[in-house]
Amino acid sequence: MRCISNFVAVMRRMKRKQIYLEPEQDRRLRVLSGRQGKTESELIREGVDRVLNEPLLDRAAWERELAFIDSLIAKGPIKGKRTWKREDLYDR
Fold first, then answer.
1. How far apart are CA 57 and CA 67, in angstroms?
2. Residue 15's domain spans which residues?
3. Kindly report the CA angle at 88 between 91 and 90, in degrees rounded to 5?
4. Are 29 and 19 in contact (CB under 8 A)?
5. How many domains does the chain have?
6. Shared domain check, 73 and 45
7. Which phi-psi region, left, alpha or beta, contains residue 82 (left: φ > 0; alpha: ψ -120 to 50)?
8. 3-state secondary structure (DSSP) of residue 47
9. d(CA 10, CA 22)
10. How far is residue 71's CA from residue 66's CA, in Å, rounded to a whole number?
11. Are residues 7 and 43 in the same domain?
12. Which of 4, 35, 49, 56 has the fewest Cβ atoms surrounding its Cβ within 10 A?
């Protein structure tokens, strides 16, 4: 009886979501569920946690870096030495 009450408590704190999977995703999820002995819902929650825990990509920062690299490339080869120092990269 205690197992049922724990299950009910867990289900009360969770939110129900409906998702759509590609047939191949559904097949692979079913196989993985059987191999790992976990429910498909558990695996989906683990996947959601992974995505939510990834650091956010600052696209603007990457665009600035690419523009900086492109500006260095546009200068072309430099005779004898480069025009920038490694420390310059850290000051940006």
1. 17
2. 2-53
3. 40
4. no
5. 2
6. no
7. beta
8. helix
9. 28
10. 9
11. yes
12. 56
What count of residues does the chain have?
92
pLDDT of residue 63: 92
Residue with structure tokens 């867990």?
Answer: 10
Considering the domain architecture, whether residues 6 and 47 belong to the same structural domain is answered as yes
Task: Please report the pLDDT score of residue 15 as a whole number.
Answer: 92
Amino acid at 65: E
Q: What is the pLDDT along the chain (92 residues), one digit of tens a residue?
A: 566 666 556 667 899 999 999 999 999 999 999 999 999 999 999 999 999 998 888 889 989 999 999 998 888 777 777 777 778 888 66
Claim to verify: residue 44 and residue 86 sit in the same structural domain: no
**Any idea what the CATH number is for the domain that residue 47 is in?**
1.10.1220
Residue 29 near residue 39 (C-beta atoms within 8 A): no
